[in-house]
């Protein structure tokens, strides 16, 4: 019986363990987690979502305060079009996070950055160009383009000296999305170095509608593999979403995948950026505690634990400090939903907004608990402590479980002494 370790992922001249830990926004896929993947010979992701918040927390910068101070006058206004990101600060924050991460890198693996197009930041093209260029300047091994079709993203960095040497990949959820991307970029004479095919069971935003349950990852992967073969395009294909054991991964490798991208199982590791008490919520969640809803202002459905405190919370929009989801005209669906509820409930101090959420504020505060569909199986991956909490895992343990396990098994960790 084969193990995932019987395969290798060839990424240009790099031979890797075929395990990629997916990007998890606002520092859930922390540098520590990504660096473990690289140390163990695979690929880890950091994320540039809310990068200023991340560097303020990690490296004591004051970017968020500076932006908030600049636009304080606008807090009461429904019109956020004036609230712009300082591109110099954005570049500085991105460089800082990437440089500090890459300086600590060991092992033969790689560290990539997850770049979501849906973070439109009130100037989509300008900010995305700065984000990607700064990450390349600071020595990131690769960029994974996520949450969007990214039809123009390669062109934004075609003049960068690392455009042809850094690894550049794209996440798609259908053959059609991949075909569009390839068509739009044909003039650049530069194929993506890898394609992550994300199916309907993934965490975060979904590349499907609310009919996500009608789709199946293996079917989409098979279609994409067949298309690439027919077109004689040699692009590594990396399935993602619901790959819970090494055996699940081997099934995809035997179909012809180059590697797998996984995330949910790492949400309960010590290196993951979620606060420890929230990792316990992930462990505890049952299948019917998980839902896909439409409260993300991005317009994409998002999967989360139903008891996430951010659901229904009617906090005042905080775009002056954050504003990552403002579109090219300074609009966000949460602002409209919030103002509608304020108008409907005059004089009320606390209002509820059920149909949209202030995703920036709540992701920053770890109050939207986005997760993969198989989160309910996490309780079978660890041991229970005397106080009923679950023992956190090491990223190394989970990584090596994917790498070496057989027979649909999940290896449990060695019991740890709990401090009295
Ligand atoms: C907590 C969490 C946050 C995520 N955030 C992002 C993100 O910011 N950007 C992204 O492209 N994918 C995001 N994802 C998707 C993962 O990178 C990955 O592709 C997917 O979850 C893999 O499926 P699995 O979780 O079933 O292993 C997230 C997933 C989880 C569990």
Beta content: 5-15%
CATH C-level label: Alpha Beta
The sequence of SSEs as H and E is EEEHEHHHEHEHEHEEHEHEHEEEHEHH
Structural class: alpha/beta
Shape: globular
Catalogue the unreliable spans: none
Percent range of helical residues? 25-40%
Number of domains: 1
How do the strands line up in the largest sheet?
4-5-6-7-8-10
Helix count from the secondary structure assignment: 13
Q: CATH superfamily name?
A: Aldolase class I
CATH topology: TIM Barrel
Largest sheet: 6 strands, parallel
Overall mean confidence score, pLDDT: 97
SSE topology sketch:
Blueprint (H helix, E strand, L loop, with lengths): L8 E3 L2 E3 L2 E3 L9 H9 L3 E5 L3 H9 L3 H8 L16 H17 L6 E7 L7 H14 L4 E5 L6 H4 L10 E6 L2 H10 L9 E5 L5 E2 L11 H14 L6 E4 L5 H10 L4 E3 L13 H9 L5 E4 L8 E4 L6 E2 L19 H12 L7 E2 L5 H6 L30 H10 L16
Parallel strand pairs: 3-11, 4-5, 5-6, 6-7, 7-8, 8-10
Antiparallel strand pairs: 1-2, 9-13, 12-13, 14-15
Helix pairs in contact: 2-4, 4-5
The structure holds flavin mononucleotide (FMN).
Task: Please tell me about this protein's structure.
Helix content is 31%, strand content 14%. 50% of the residues are buried. Helix 4 (87-103) packs parallel to helix 5. The strands form five sheets. The chain has a six-stranded parallel beta sheet. Strands 9-13-12 form a three-stranded antiparallel beta sheet, with no helix packed on it. The chain has a two-stranded antiparallel sheet with strand order 1-2. The termini are far apart. Helix 5 links the parallel strand 5 and strand 6. It has one domain: TIM Barrel (Alpha-Beta Barrel), CATH 3.20.20. It has helices spanning 31-39, 51-59, 63-70, 87-103, 124-137, 153-156, 175-184, 217-230, 246-255, 276-284, 333-344, 359-364, 395-404, and strands at 9-11, 14-16, 19-21, 43-47, 110-116, 142-146, 167-172, 194-198, 204-205, 237-240, 260-262, 290-293, 302-305, 312-313, 352-353. It is built from 13 helices and 15 strands. The protein has 420 residues and is of the alpha/beta class. The site of flavin mononucleotide (FMN) has 30 residues, from strand 5 and strand 11.
